[in-house]
Structures are given as C-alpha cells and as structure tokens.
Design brief:
CATH topology: Ribonucleotide Reductase, subunit A
Oligomer: single chain
Bound molecules: fe (iii) ion, manganese (II) ion
CATH superfamily: Ribonucleotide Reductase, subunit A
Shape: globular
Number of helices: 15
Strand order of the largest sheet: 1-2
Number of strands: 2
Low-confidence stretches: 333-359
Structural class: mainly alpha
CATH class: Mainly Alpha
Strand content: under 5%
CATH architecture: Orthogonal Bundle
C-alpha cells in the first residue's frame, strides 16, 4: 500500500508498511541506527520545523558594520573602563563558550540521538555555534584587540573558570558508545541536555547578553550589540531545541523521571545560578553604566525559573517579575528591520521573522 506524506508544501509517496515501521523505530535514544539519513517519515516534526526556522535566520558577521564601534573603542571618552571590561569579558567568555557548546552538540548530543531529523537540526545548531565563534573573531579583528587578552579572560578569571568546570563536568564522560539502555546512563545524558540547554545557553549566557545589550541600548558598540542580538535569537532556538529534546526523551523513557533525578536537576540549576551571580559581581563590581548587579542577579533568577518551568520542574522564585522588560524589546529583531541597513535582513525569509522568539526574555 502506498501512502502520501505531507511536509509543508512537499509531498512524498511512501510504502505504508515500511513507513510505519520506520516511524515506530524512530526514538530520541536507542532508536534504529542507520547510516542512511532516513528523514521520512518525519516523527519529530518540531525538529524539522525548527531546522527550517534556524536556517531562515541565517546571518554572517561581516554584514554588520563595525565603524562606529571602532571609533568608540579608539576614543578616550566614549567608553568607560568598566564598559570596556564588559565588552572584553563578553568577547572572552563567548569565544570559548561557543566552542564548548558546539563540541558537546557535535560529539555528545548529536552522536547519541538516533532519529535523523534530530541529527539534522543538531547539525544546524553546531553550525550556528561556528557562526557565533566567527562573529567573535570579527569583533576582535575589527577593534584590533589582542586575542590573547581575550583568551586570558577565560583562563584567568576565577568565576569564568568555575562556570567552565561546571559545564565540562557533565560532558567529558559522555562520548560515543555510552550504553543507553541503562537508566543511570540515560539520566547522565538527559542531565547533559538539561545543563547545556537550560543552565548554560538558557541562563548563564544571559548575564553578559544583558550587559552588552544594555550598552548597545545606550548606543555603545552598536555593531557588537547587533551581533549579540542575532546570537541571542539563535540561542533562543537552541534553548527550545534542547528543551523539546529533553521533554521527548523523558516521555519516551519514563524510567529516568524519578523524584531523585528531578532534585538533581534542580540542584544543578541552583549551582549554575550561583556561579552566574558570582560572575556578574565580577563583571559589575560597582553599579556603573546604569546597571546594578542586584538587578542582574534578580534577572538571572527570573530566567532560571523560566527554564525550570519549561522542562516541567518546580520554579525557585514564584511571582518574581522580569526586572528588565526593556531587554525583551531590545532583542525583538522584527522591529529593527527598517533601521538596519546591512544585508542581514536579506537572509531572513519573511515567514520566519514572524517566528522570532521575542518572548524569550
Ligand atoms: Fe552560540
Ligand atoms: Mn547556542
């Protein structure tokens, strides 16, 4: 029997029996392993849709003008010492963090999942981390920053080191050939997906995002601000990807969802939040440039609760409101289409712009 399957406006005629079997054999983990990239029939439609959406939001660093940033960077009066420190921190932290995420996506998550449409969207995720890493090189070269100074940020700032240790701890033992029929191993993998998606990309990125976008809001380093806005939009897709992946994995593997495991995850988020708050105090030792570290810490609590809630865990601060409502507007890329003259908008197909996760903050 033949049956027609529809994906968007494309249709495919498949042998029904084969298609049903392929569908049933698709799982997040422990599904059918095949070298052929059998996307059809799609089981995880959301993953394919997300892939299309991510692709439609493609951007390239060189499309963002950096002249204004360079002028300000060279001037003695346009940027204060603490503003320069924030920019250096941002470039230094993300230069390394993007690589850590990309590596984990490629060598842990994409290796361990079995359904092709999940591998498809995770490949795009890894590529976006490459774009982000490349955008940081572009910032470094445009401003004439010494790359070693940025590297040093990652190696010498104690609070960054601790964030890094926390993250790599859940990644290093999860390479190829992990036996995912064991509940404990499945939990380790789910923990990895949670920590990378919800604790790191979902929360620990947001301290610096907020600071840099706050500078951009005051017209300081607008090119860098623009790239961080695009990066943040990409990150909101990554957070959503890893969130949905996590939820489906729990649904398909109810054995992992124990009270003890939920407590573990909550504990990891608490640790991650503390590390981020320590880091924020390093970045904002004094309440300068119109930013207060207390507000930032409460923003971090707010973001952490959104992430916990997104994966069905208890939140830590019920009733807490977003102390930075302006940030939600700042990243609303839709609104700035007319202001921004670069070529970036040409990559964006109108349909996908409607999908920008402007409620992500
Ligand atoms: Fe990234
Ligand atoms: Mn990311």
């Amino acid at each position: 029997m033949e049956k027609t399957y529809q994906i968007g406006d494309k249709s495919f005629v498949l042998d029904e029996e084969k298609a049903v079997r392929a569908f049933q054999e698709k799982k997040v983990i422990n599904g059918r392993k095949s070298v052929a990239f059998n996307l059809l029939p799609l089981k995880y439609q959301w993953a394919y849709d997300l892939y299309r959406n991510m692709k439609a939001n493609h951007w390239e660093p060189e499309d963002v003008p950096m002249q204004k940033d360079l002028e300000q960077w060279k001037s003695d009066s346009d940027l204060s010492e603490s503003e320069r420190w924030i920019i250096m921190m941002g470039i230094g932290y993300f230069s390394a963090a993007e690589g850590i995420v990309g590596d984990n996506i490629q060598h842990v998550i994409r290796e361990l999942v079995t359904a092709p449409e999940l591998k498809l969207v995770l490949g795009r995720h890894a590529h976006e981390e490459n774009i982000h890493a490349d955008s940081l090189l572009y910032m470094i070269s445009s401003l004439g920053i010494n790359p070693h100074e940025c590297e040093a940020m990652f190696e010498q700032v104690e609070t960054i080191l601790r964030k890094n240790e926390f993250i790599t701890e859940v990644s290093k033992n999860l390479r190829r050939d992990l036996d995912l029929t064991q509940t404990a191993n499945k939990q380790e993998f789910a923990k990895n997906v949670f920590v990378f998606g919800q604790c790191m990309e979902g929360m620990q990125f947001y301290g610096l995002f907020g600071m840099i976008l706050s500078l951009a809001r005051q017209n300081k380093c607008p090119g860098i601000g623009q790239m961080f806005r695009y990066t943040l939009r990409d990150e909101s897709n990554h957070i959503d990807l890893l969130r949905q992946l996590f939820l489906v994995m729990v649904e398909e593997n109810p054995d992992i969802w124990t009270d003890e495991f939920k407590d573990d995850l909550l504990g990891l988020m608490k640790t991650a939040v503390q590390l981020e708050k320590d880091f924020i105090c390093d970045c904002l030792p004094v309440n300068s440039v119109g930013l207060s570290s207390e507000e930032f810490c409460s923003y971090i609590d707010y973001i952490a609760d959104r992430r916990l809630n997104g994966v069905g865990l208890d939140i830590l601060h019920p009733g807490l409101e977003n102390p930075f409502p302006w940030l939600a507007e700042t990243i609303d890329v839709k609104k700035e289409q007319n202001f921004f003259e670069g070529r970036v908008t040409e990559y964006q197909k109108s349909s996908s712009l409607a999908e920008v996760a402007d409620d992500e903050l």
